[in-house]
Amino acid sequence: MASKSRKNWLLVEDPAPWQPPADVYRTRDGWLVKFDLAGVDTSDVAVTIRGRRVSISGFRRDSFVEEGASHYSMEISYNRFERSLLMPANLENARVTIAAREGLLLVRMNTEGKENV
User: Could you tell me the pTM of the whole model?
Assistant: First the structure.
């Protein structure tokens, strides 16, 4: 009986998304969440608020590589990222502003004059 040769295929799954660290502050007019997202373009970030949950997701690209270069060592995470935080108050009615400054994504949720916050 002739044996059939089998090809062994290496299946590579997408790596798990990395989770950027975050700081949460209570401010006079609501809440501020700072996400450490150095090197991430704000156009590559989505922010969602559902009830008490604040979530971000996006992608960090390695855009500073010269043509023909190969890596020797890589410690910075490039890929998809996701992070969700459960806040102490419902923020769906908050006025949200997003800004980037010095490698941080600043998500401000103004709750001044809103109920349940």
Answer: 0.79
